[in-house]
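User: I'm curious whether this sequence folds into something compact or stays loose and floppy. Could you predict its structure so I can see for myself?
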Amino acid sequence: MGLPISLFALMMTSVIGSLLFIIFSFSFTVILSVFVFNAGLYIALTHITKNSALLHFKKVFPLIVSNKKDTHLKYED
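Assistant: Here's the prediction. I'll summarize afterward.
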């Protein structure tokens, strides 16, 4: 079981930002703290995914989108 698309995008953004941070940092403790941060974020996101009651996502769009008017005319009859 993986992450939903939105949480996966958040994780990948964090990983790419961390890689940029590692490239331009010169401290070993910063590099270790970035790895700990990414591991903690991954654990938190998988915990949120398994327990969906912690963070409830509503669907934004309706199932059917239509601009037809309800005319009550039956052309098929």
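Summary: The first helix runs from residue 5 to 24. The mean pLDDT is 82.
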